[in-house]
Design a protein that fits this description.
The protein is an alpha/beta fold. The chain contains 6 helices and 11 strands. The chain has one domain (about 10-120, about 150-220): 3-Layer(aba) Sandwich (Glutaconate Coenzyme A-transferase), CATH 3.40.1080.10.
Length: about 230
């Protein structure tokens, strides 16, 4: 019987080691798997590469992880957030690396990995510092740069609903980077707010099929104990 639910955070994140590359869902704090990230922060890991839309808000989650010194590099679109100076302080002190990627390019690089596309050309960033050193080609009269797919060792995501096969739904703007990240990692771990029986989630409502999901942990909304 297929059952991808796991009993605790330790099991959910088993195999996550120093030097790993992690895709983290969320747009700001919306859709971010805060409890999973908090647990990673408590694992004492080092030299992680974090790939996300932003580099943390004012507290908790990603910011807590940055404060532990676990992150050696961040790949993101928005390294600065309102009322958060943690990443900026680390960057100015030379304690962390940054790869800045335009948001649409970041999303497409992740989606490309999920779709098995090794690279693609885009006009975004062409002729700017973000395109420096990258292969270029003129396509239909526009200068384009070659961007490579982003693969990761782990993806940590947040879902609204999940069944034991790992089929997922997302609520409203929680459907941000989470769906495209699910297929771009060797191991995909999901925290879900609600558990559904098989068949309760209509096939048309499934946004991430369970084939892309390895482990699921139930984290009810607002539960601080997990």
């Amino acid at each position: 019987m297929i059952n991808k639910f796991v009993p605790d955070m330790e099991t959910a994140l088993a195999g996550l080691n120093d030097g790993a590359t992690i895709l983290m869902g969320g747009f700001g704090s919306v859709g971010q798997p805060v409890q999973l990230v908090d647990h990673i922060a408590d694992m004492g890991l080092k030299n992680l590469t974090l790939i996300a839309n932003n580099a943390g808000a004012a507290f908790g989650g990603m910011t807590k992880l940055l404060q532990t010194g676990a992150i050696g590099k961040v790949v993101c679109s928005y390294p600065r957030s309102s009322n958060s100076t943690v990443f900026i302080d680390l960057y100015r002190e030379g304690k962390i690396q940054l790869e800045l990627v335009p948001q649409g390019t970041l999303a497409e690089r992740i989606r490309a990995a999920s779709a098995g596309i090794p690279a693609f050309f885009t006009p975004t960033g062409a002729g700017t510092q973000l395109g420096a050193g990258k292969e270029t080609r003129e396509i239909n009269g526009r200068l384009c740069v070659l961007e490579t797919a982003i693969h990761a060792d782990f993806a940590v995501l947040e879902a609204w609903e999940a069944d034991r096969w790992g089929n997922l739904t997302y609520k409203l703007s929680g459907q941000n980077f989470n769906p495209i990240m699910a297929g771009a990692a060797a191991v995909t771990v999901v925290q879900t707010q609600h558990v559904r029986e098989l068949g309760e989630i209509h096939p048309d409502a499934v946004k991430t099929p369970g084939i892309y999901v390895d482990r699921v942990i139930h984290v009810p909304y607002g539960d601080p104990t997990l």
